[in-house]
Amino acid sequence: MKAIEINGKIKTFNRVPRTWNDGVNLHLNLRALSDSELQSYGFYDVVTPSYDSVTQQISNLHFDGRKKKFVYDVTDKVFSQTLEEAKETKKQEVKKRAGDLLKVTDWYVIRNADISAGIPENIAADREDIRTKADAAELEIDALETIGDVLKYQIVLVEPILGEDLV
Question: What is the pTM of this model?
């Protein structure tokens, strides 16, 4: 990515434009120029730092004359939730996912309560596994110590099938 500063504003480009009008001249075939030639027109590389997008953000793109590059500042995000609120939100998500997974086989439970038809062993085992994993997930969430850790926590209540999203 390249950028140029024009009248105090930074304009970024995923690709160098083919042509560029600097207000005085029209420059053709910029993509064929070397980095040092592009720099003579004011085009410099943009350095996107590595950062944790859950807990940090990038902002304030500016030119670093020493590095001869445009760089971003990395700052910590300010969260609107407390740690306890974040945990409660994540635990509610666990409950919803578990409920959605159990809902598929709820008719076995209802039928059993209604006419004592019994619940197949594999269905009962699957339901127990979902409840056990949901309980374990809630305990793991309670043990987390930062909002970032809570937000990054991945809820896995069933083993993923290759090529499908985690549930």
Answer: 0.71
